[in-house]
Amino acid sequence: MSLLEDLHWRYATKKMNGEKVPQEKVDYILRAAQMAPSSSGLQQYKIIVITDKALLEKIKSISYNQSQITDCSHLLVFAAWDGYSEERISGVFNYMMDERGLPHSTMDDYKNTILTLYATLGKDWEAHHAAKQSYISFAMAIAAAAEQKVDATPIEGFLPDKLDELLKLKGSGYKSTVLLPLGYRDEANDWLVNMKKVRTPQADFITEMTLADAADVEEMPVMPSLGSFTRK
Ligand SMILES: Cc1cc2nc3c(=O)[nH]c(=O)nc-3n(C[C@H](O)[C@H](O)[C@H](O)COP(=O)(O)O)c2cc1C
């Protein structure tokens, strides 16, 4: 099956049947999530995997009682950094340079540039920026699950503050962003399973533009070239 066929097969499963997903499929989905690109390669998020039924019951109670939380096989909780710091960013870049056999200082100019930029944007922006990166990983997990014929329901319908408290994320530097229960559809009891998949018509979704369609912006800022920070 092609990726497009897999994406047509998948849907936001409303009723799961409780069947276990084999560990190798879960590992494959987690690996795909780990391979997601992220801004500056920081991977400013992580995934918490939960199978404990008693804990899942508690999470369901703060997730509008959505049954997929307890009928799934594995619940993936995506959690992103609550902000940036020199220590956090250096930690990632130093590890990257060690893996590539390069001196830690290789990324110093780039690191200082992003730290200076982030400082002007504020802590809320930082948390939001990190959360957006976690959604890219989340989308990779959704696509990988579809490829493995594992059902997955994207879930934003939960109380993040309460979940952060329950999972001891408060004070850890992470905030929960989104949930992904993995499991198998309960064909007989899921009202959505045979519904037509509906998307915005292609003509409305995709716009092609040329300079003739663009605004006549007189003054464009002069920007430094990013490559000069990353290449030595
Ligand atoms: C970020 C995000 C949050 C969502 N939250 C929920 C949710 O809490 N519960 C739910 O049943 N579906 C949720 N959905 C599923 C969407 O409603 C669904 O993906 C959309 O209607 C398209 O349908 P499809 O995924 O079946 O193709 C969410 C989807 C996304 C991407």
Automatic annotation (TrEMBL):
Cofactor needs: FMN
Keyword tags: Flavoprotein, FMN, Oxidoreductase
Keyword presence, Flavoprotein: yes
Domain Nitroreductase span(s) in chain numbering: 9-184
GO molecular function, one term: oxidoreductase activity
UniProt superkingdom: Bacteria
Protein family per UniProt: Belongs to the nitroreductase family.
Protein name: Nitroreductase
Biological source species: Filimonas zeae
